[in-house]
Design goal:
Structural class of chain B: alpha/beta
CATH architecture of the largest domain in chain A: Up-down Bundle
Number of strands of chain B: 13
Distance between the termini of chain B: 63 Å
Order of helices and strands of chain B: EEEEEHEHEHEHEEEEHEH
CATH architecture of chain B: 3-Layer(aba) Sandwich
Strand order of the largest sheet of chain A: 1-4-5-8
Largest interface: A-B, 17 and 10 residues
CATH superfamily of chain B: HUPs
Largest sheet of chain B: 9 strands, mixed
Number of helices of chain B: 6
CATH topology of chain B: Rossmann fold
Number of domains of chain A: 3
Oligomer: heterodimer
CATH topology of the largest domain in chain A: Butyryl-CoA Dehydrogenase, subunit A, domain 3
Shape of chain B: globular
CATH class of the largest domain in chain A: Mainly Alpha
Structural class of chain A: alpha+beta
Strand order of the largest sheet of chain B: 11-10-9-12-8-1-6-7-13
CATH class of chain B: Alpha Beta
Order of helices and strands of chain A: HHHHHHEEEEEEEEHEEHHHH
Number of helices of chain A: 11
Largest sheet of chain A: 4 strands, mixed
Radius of gyration of chain B: 23 Å
Distance between the termini of chain A: 36 Å
Chain lengths: ~375, ~260
């Protein structure tokens, strides 16, 4: 389908596709197998300018938007949904600075991220605070010109590899969610270390670790927005970042569809390619329809977001993420089915897509949390009438 | 320092059809790309520019559509592109091409290093690079696998040989042709792609480069193509059929018969 991309957006797609095929495809199995962070790929990626696509030109980026970030993540994820995550997760860690940072904070942190040389990460989840973000225990205590951070964040994407961390901590526990604040913490700050590296079902080349704060002292200039605004920062960040997860899910699904169609035309059983059997055709037809629907919803959402980032985009972002991640899971399960025994073998990239797809239904809010957000917005809209 | 890269646009495939009437390659409908060896030349020039500062000018002699190859070179970090194009250049052999490129470089004026790919994937002669250096009366080193050092007036390079490599100190200006071991070419950058779309490609004719009419195109080419043909296709050989066991037995007895085992 034609989504009427601009000339520059067509270039983005062309470049991202080229990068995925030439630089990621030859190494994706190796990084998955070794569970190794793909620095060699990321260093090459930095040279393409794509890392800073959503960052304003005045801070070293390309001055484009969430839509443009999404088409890049989609193209990369068609080939590998795990290596592409280092970009999407960096965007997640960068949005708090982009949306709430002062000019000084932006000048200090964004150029390095825009150049692709530095990665970022976002820390909100804790062992006892996942979907229930109100249960956060990590604390930030003001002392003179500093804040002292204590506590542990877990399951943090890009942890250990990123240079810049945006972290939610409680500045006043008595106020509940209104007592949360968001801070920038740099790698190498005394008292800030990383815990064990998790072993995961999918996205295995991505790094997932704990952030451990033990009397970690940061300057008060590292507070984003104001004290007590932590949850607003987090919610606005998710409005911007969830389309990126949807793009990752969409790319995984679209890549699975491409390979499944290709395979069905080559695989001969009962004297004909299996693409000639209606049983296969209908699976492929459903996959293609759902992938296109996910893309249409995501593109509309991302374009709406870019038109007015200050508006509330929670419902549409949640819808795009919910739908694309559900489609990714269903499509990859069916794609493995089309490939049969070959789909199940680790020698072929299909089972990896199925493993990678699952996380998109879980992180940055589970599918259930997305439904909560959508329903809450529906009820609120109705009450306003 | 200033670098000049000479590139050639070639067919994307090696499976090119021949026009038996004109003894030339049929280019219609065949996708064109930058000669793969020239991509290493472009990358090396851009890397050297990043080391020393200055600029990279990329030139090609060819039909109007060769402009696309220059734009792609700009997207990969080159600063300026010049297309030398004129009907009078048609039918040029390596001697006439070397002369034409040398005249182009004379008009550009100042430069420190000229870089070419070691050969083109269509003609495979490897003559044009050294030919340009001879026409300009500057030193050249072919098959360079590494630039060890470069500073104003001199550079140190490794020339790849079958049994190792030679190391040369060469005074500048000079010309080198490069092999694929020299680097791993980058992809275009987004800024480069946007720049290359908008960039103005200079177009020079035979008159612009003050070319001597007797030294360009067909009249400047002592090489005459008498005939162009495909090598005869290999014949099919003998095919063994039947059950695998029978095929294996037949193969072994055949090999014994031929005294291979």
């Amino acid at each position: 389908m034609d989504y009427f991309l601009s000339e520059e957006q067509k270039m983005l797609v062309e470049l991202a596709k080229k990068f995925a095929h030439e630089k990621i495809k030859p190494v994706r199995e190796e990084f998955d197998e070794k569970e190794e962070f793909p620095w060699s790929v990321i260093e090459e990626f930095a040279k393409t300018d794509l890392a800073g696509v959503y960052i304003p030109a005045e801070y070293g980026g390309m001055g484009m938007g969430v839509f443009d970030l999404c088409v890049v993540v989609e193209e990369l994820s068609k080939i590998d949904g795990s290596i592409s995550l280092s970009l999407a997760a960096t965007a997640l860690g960068t949005f708090p600075i982009l949306l709430f940072g002062t000019d000084d904070q932006k000048k200090k942190y964004l150029p390095g991220i825009a150049s692709g040389k530095k990665l970022a990460a976002f820390g909100i989840t804790e062992p006892n605070a996942g979907s229930d973000a109100g249960a956060i225990q990590t604390s930030a205590k003001k002392e003179g010109d500093s804040y002292i951070l204590n506590g542990t964040k877990c399951f943090i994407t890009n942890a250990g590899e990123a240079e810049v961390y945006t972290v939610i901590a409680m500045t006043d526990k008595t106020k509940g969610p209104r007592g949360a604040s968001c801070f920038i913490v740099e790698k190498g700050t005394p008292g800030f270390t990383f815990g064990k590296k998790e072993k995961k079902m999918g996205i295995r080349s991505s790094s997932t670790r704990e952030l451990i704060f033990n009397n970690c002292k940061i300057p008060k200039e590292n507070l984003l927005a104001k004290e007590g605004m932590g949850f607003i920062v987090a919610m606005k960040t998710f409005d911007a970042s969830r389309p990126g997860v949807a793009a990752q899910a969409l790319g995984i699904a679209a890549g699975a569809l491409d390979d499944a169609v290709d395979y069905s035309r080559k695989r001969v059983q009962f004297g004909q390619p299996i693409s000639g059997f209606q049983a296969i055709q209908h699976i492929l037809a459903d996959m293609a329809t759902e992938v296109e629907a996910a893309r249409a919803l995501l593109y509309a959402t991302a374009r709406q977001y870019d038109k007015d980032p200050s508006a509330r985009n929670t419902k549409s972002s949640a819808m795009a993420k919910l739908y694309a991640s559900e489609v990714a899971m269903k499509t990859t399960v069916n794609a493995v089915q089309v490939l049969g025994g070959y789909g199940y073998m680790r020698e072929y990239p299909m089972e990896k897509r199925m493993r990678d797809a699952k996380i998109t239904q879980i992180y940055e809010g589970t599918s259930q949390i997305q439904r909560n957000e959508i329903a809450f917005a529906l009820i609120k809209e109705s009450a306003r009438k | 320092m200033n670098f000049i890269v000479c590139i050639k646009q070639v067919p994307a495939t090696t499976d090119v059809k021949i026009d038996s009437n004109t003894n030339t390659l049929k280019r219609e409908g065949v996708e064109s790309i930058i000669n793969p060896f020239d991509e290493y030349a472009i990358e090396e020039a851009v890397r050297l520019k990043e080391r020393t500062g200055g600029k990279v000018t990329v030139i090609t002699m060819g039909p109007p559509q060769a402009e696309n190859a220059l734009r792609e070179a700009l997207s990969r970090g080159c600063d300026e592109g010049i297309l030398v194009s004129d009907r009078a250049f048609a039918g040029a052999d390596t001697l006439a091409t070397s002369y034409t490129l040398a005249q182009t470089i004379r008009k550009i004026g100042e430069f420190d290093v000229i870089i070419c790919g070691k050969q083109a994937s269509d003609g495979d002669t490897a003559q044009v690079g050294p030919g340009v250096a001879e026409k300009l009366n500057i030193p050249h080193i072919a098959y360079v696998g590494k630039v060890e050092d470069i500073k104003p007036g001199t550079m140190k390079v490794q020339r790849m040989m079958e049994d190792g490599h030679d190391i040369f100190d060469v005074s500048l200006p000079a010309l080198i042709t490069v092999v694929k071991e020299i680097n791993n070419p980058r992809l275009p950058s987004l800024k480069g792609m946007i720049f290359s779309k908008k960039a103005v490609i200079k177009k020079w004719t035979a008159a612009d480069i003050s070319a001597d009419a007797d030294k360009i195109g067909l009249s400047g080419s002592p090489t005459q193509v008498m005939k162009i043909f495909y090598p005869p296709a290999r014949q099919g050989g003998e095919k063994l059929t039947g059950e695998p066991q029978d095929q294996a037995a037949a193969l072994v007895s055949k090999m014994k018969e031929l005294k291979l085992i």
